[in-house]
Design a protein that fits this description.
The chain has about 280 residues and is α/β, with parallel strands linked by helices. It has 8 helices and 15 strands. The strands form 3 sheets. The chain has a 6-stranded mixed β-sheet with strand order 2-3-1-4-11-5. A hairpin with a 5-residue loop joins strand 13 and strand 14. The chain starts with a strand and ends in a 6-residue tail after the last strand.
Length: about 280
């Protein structure tokens, strides 16, 4: 059987979280130090460790079949490459920042200004939509220093925590896009390898659904069961089991992490007691 070739960033936070995700979906990688590629022991998969900025071209050329890559890189360099799954980690923004001492009234303040960036396509598209004409200085690294040495009036770069901007006396004034790690696929992917990718995507979806959900168990008087069921979404419907104490039942369900506290408050108001909340490792629907 042929192996699916998947690229990941060779170092950094995205690399670490990508490898952790592969581990979570049950794929064991023999990853020796300084290897450029490694094979899975228990799945038809080869992992290629590449520079993040090079991965879009490898996808276009069919050198790799898929990649876990930052969405921001695909927007900048990955024209024609499809995203098949958003993975929810390695989140960041691509933003415009200016010196803290400079007053900012709006995007029109960038008219005619010099902007240093590693994302020329992304910033140019944004400026074109806003009708702003600016002069771009393309820099491959250390973009934040450009205003301090007089090279630019502003920068456009990725922002995670904002600490790098703070250290360089810069402030964020425009957020161009929000990014996260995604699973992207080569336009040259074969049908045989598509089957392997489908298996990976199914496992990823199971892990992501688990991460975004909580398992809830609670006790409730029987005359409150219907009101509680109406609150709980569940996968199909909540599970209701009678307790040893007459007139009481145990209710089991799954709720979204994003709605967690609102649902818990509503459950308590409707008579729920002994509410237990458990993490879900994986959820297969």
């Amino acid at each position: 059987m042929s192996k699916l070739k998947i690229a990941v960033q060779k170092a950094g936070r995205l690399h670490d979280e990508s490898m952790e995700m592969l581990k979570d979906i049950g794929i064991s990688i023999d990853n020796g130090k300084d290897q450029l590629k490694a094979s899975a022991r228990n799945f038809p998969l080869e992992v290629f460790y590449l520079r993040n900025g090079d991965i879009p071209q490898y996808l276009k050329d069919g050198v790799v079949d898929a990649a876990i890559i930052g969405e921001n890189i695909l927007i900048e360099k990955g024209d024609g490459i499809s995203i098949v799954e958003k993975l929810g980690f390695s989140t960041c923004k691509v933003s415009i920042a200016i010196p803290k001492s400079v007053k900012y009234n709006g995007i029109k303040d960038l008219e005619g200004r010099r902007i240093a960036t590693s994302y020329p396509n992304t910033i140019q598209n944004y400026l074109d939509k806003k009708g702003i004409h600016a002069h771009l200085h393309i820099i491959s690294g250390s973009v934040e220093i450009a205003p301090n040495i007089g090279l630019a009036d502003a920068i456009c770069d990725i922002v995670s925590s904002g600490s790098t901007l703070f250290k360089n006396n810069l402030k964020e004034v425009e957020v161009i896009l929000k990014s996260e790690a995604v699973l992207a696929v080569s336009p040259l992917l074969s049908e045989e390898k598509q089957e392997i990718l489908d298996k990976i995507q199914f496992r990823l979806q199971s892990v992501l659904k688990g991460r975004n959900s909580k398992y809830v168990l609670l006790n409730a008087p029987n005359d409150k069961i219907q009101a509680i069921i109406d609150i709980l979404p569940g996968m199909k419907s909540p599970t209701v089991l009678p307790l040893a104490e007459a007139g009481w039942s145990s209710v089991h369900s799954v709720i979204s992490k994003n709605e967690f506290w609102d649902i818990i408050d509503a459950l308590k108001k409707n008579g729920a007691q002994g509410i237990l909340v458990c993490p879900i490792e994986k959820m297969v629907l």
